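Hi everyone, sorry if this is the wrong subforum. Our group has a chain we'd like a structural model of before ordering constructs, and none of us has done structure prediction before. Sequence below.
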Amino acid sequence: MTQDLARIRAFVQVFDSGGFSAAARQHGRSKALLSKYVTDLEDYLGVRLMNRTTRKLGLTEAGEAYYREASTLLQQLDDLDATITDQTAEPRGLLRVSAPRNFGEDTLAPVIFAFLAKYPKVSLDLRLEDRYVDLVDEGIDVALRISTMADSSLIARKIADMRVVAAASPDFLARMGVPKHPDELRAQPCIVDTNLQGQANWRFIEDGKTLSVPVTGPVRVNSPLAARQAAISGLGFAVMPSYLADPAVASGALVPVLAEFMPTGQTLQAVYPHRRHLAGKVRALIDYLVEWFAAHPVS
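Answer:
Right subforum, don't worry. Here is the predicted structure as tokens:
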């Protein structure tokens, strides 16, 4: 069985590397041994898997089918080995994490740095940016996202409940009046955060149904922190996460409006690529975040 796996792994490594010489350099094996393993595999199966020329290497039709299944099998075995090791070993290695900039700087950073203090063998690449990040293409282990849903190709675990707040400055409300219904915002100056789901179509809840209100105003920004500052400056209404709104509300710089119409169901989620076995360092971080935010609610 061990010899069979060695042959299969050699076949996958050679094709992934683009040739026998490249695979030998990359995996520390001799070119002759890799060639022998692939030839032995072909002899055992009774079919040619690779077309070899001096310039390039390609797969036969049988080789393509075998490669798909073999590479999946080897990945599952590697993941299983890693899972068993992770259960008994302290989390270690590089952890790539993505999060919204303002949430990461203001709320997440203290939590994740405490995690690193607990697990000193883990190193961190924390990427704070207000854009959609493709986890697979960019090699991200886990992303923290504030949303109501996740990409179907990913797995999401709820970390904590979140709220959104509509607010304006006291001076602005004194001039323009306090809205009683979301529809009134259609004719009022509003600050559009282009990172917000729906952007200029703000979502509210009325009688259990979603109400979408198109808004316009003097400011469009791609930062909830800047949207908050624009609202504090009296430029209009803004919708923002509660972790940004609450300090300004507590200081009197902003006044919440339309609270009874604000949607619920927003959550902080840990999102990670669909894998059968989750790396121990990722599982440890997610568990730590769940425990932290349970003890320290965002609002």
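For your construct planning: The domain at 164-261 is CATH 3.40.190.10 (D-Maltodextrin-Binding Protein; domain 2). The first strand starts at residue 50 and ends at 52.
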